[in-house]
């Protein structure tokens, strides 16, 4: 029975099916909001669903000079890794598959889709892909340091509250916020929360930090030679990131927002709705509106930005937490 529950968690809720539906919905909402900001009507909210289904039916063209095995397997690895993360995220007081080092696992899982795109782009043998790959590497190097520092600051704060030193368990981080207050509203972790929100566009891969894909410059960069099923899997992974990264922010910094009743099932339903509302707000404010207002950064501008403002804010939070402020 325990293995059956875990299989349901992975495949249905909060795993693959639920994550895909929410991710595609947020992507459709993002396109609608940006269109309205640009005084366009925009597509339907369900357009990403149609796009994905359409790509599934298209022919898949593999370049003659490509490494065919790597080219085909890269999008599958990217999608599987990003779909595992929601199962590790607690929803207020409900933990699906917990552990003592969830944060460490999530850090690795978040890197895998990026690495898969880099490897897939290199395997395609396209010059446009090689340019996109180099930009993707620079992007990853730019935001990984402040992102990990933000997470470490949260882990240290939760450990201090629980008297455990530094904890890497997401359920422990959620419990710490429920016993005190959401970390975003504490002085020591507010800079880290701002830094995390600044990192969201680059991690998801939207403007102004979509320098790797850059459709108008290098024809989708690493994805230039992808089509059909494989392109659809990469696009689906991109859409799911809208949900995964916003939900991760909610767990790390807004884990104290939720309700607790006498029924676990009712708790799960209500807190899932609260999570979806918070995720939608964060996605709109930090991804859609930012994408509609700002143009694309140059690669060196992005690198300089992330190694100054978000890095300084993340390190400031870590120092304040270390002094127990």
UniProtKB/TrEMBL annotation:
Which keywords describe this protein according to UniProt?
Membrane, Transmembrane, Transmembrane helix
Report TM segments: 6-29, 69-91, 103-124, 145-163, 183-200, 240-257, 269-293, 305-323
Q: How does it sit in the membrane?
A: Multi-pass membrane protein
Any GO CC annotation of this UniProt entry: plasma membrane
User: Does this UniProt record's set of keywords contain Transmembrane helix?
Assistant: yes
Indicate where this protein resides in the cell.
Membrane
Q: What is this protein called?
A: NADH dehydrogenase
Species source reads Clostridium celatum DSM 1785
């Amino acid at each position: 029975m325990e293995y059956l529950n875990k299989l349901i968690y992975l495949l249905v809720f909060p795993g693959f099916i639920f994550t895909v539906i929410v991710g595609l919905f947020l992507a459709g909402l993002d396109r609608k909001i940006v269109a309205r900001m640009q005084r366009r009507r925009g597509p339907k909210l369900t357009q990403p669903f149609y796009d994905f289904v359409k790509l599934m039916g298209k022919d898949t063209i593999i370049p003659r000079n490509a490494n065919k095995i790597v080219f085909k397997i890269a999008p599958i690895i990217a999608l599987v890794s990003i779909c595992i993360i929601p199962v590790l995220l607690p929803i207020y007081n409900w933990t699906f598959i917990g552990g003592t080092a969830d944060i460490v696992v999530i850090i690795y899982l978040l890197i895998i889709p990026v690495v898969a795109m880099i490897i897939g782009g290199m395997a395609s043998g396209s010059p446009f892909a090689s340019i996109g790959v180099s930009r993707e590497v620079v992007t990853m190097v730019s935001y990984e340091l402040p992102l990990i520092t933000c997470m470490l600051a949260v882990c240290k704060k939760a450990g201090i509250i629980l008297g455990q030193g530094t904890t890497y368990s997401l359920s422990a981080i959620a419990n710490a916020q429920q016993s005190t207050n959401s970390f975003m509203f504490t002085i020591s972790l507010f800079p880290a929360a701002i830094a995390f929100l600044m990192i969201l566009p680059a991690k998801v891969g939207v403007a102004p930090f979509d320098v790797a894909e850059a459709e108008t410059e290098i024809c989708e960069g690493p994805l230039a030679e992808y089509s059909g099923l494989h392109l659809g899997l990469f696009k689906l992974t991109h859409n799911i990131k809208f949900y995964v990264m916003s939900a991760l922010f909610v767990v790390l910094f807004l884990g104290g927002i939720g309700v607790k009743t006498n029924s676990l099932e009712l708790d799960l339903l209500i807190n899932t709705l609260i999570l979806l509302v918070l995720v939608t707000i964060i996605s709109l404010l930090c991804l859609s509106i930012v994408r509609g207002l700002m143009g694309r950064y140059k690669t060196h501008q992005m690198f300089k930005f992330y190694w100054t403002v978000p890095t300084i804010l993340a390190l400031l939070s870590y120092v304040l937490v270390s002094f127990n402020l």
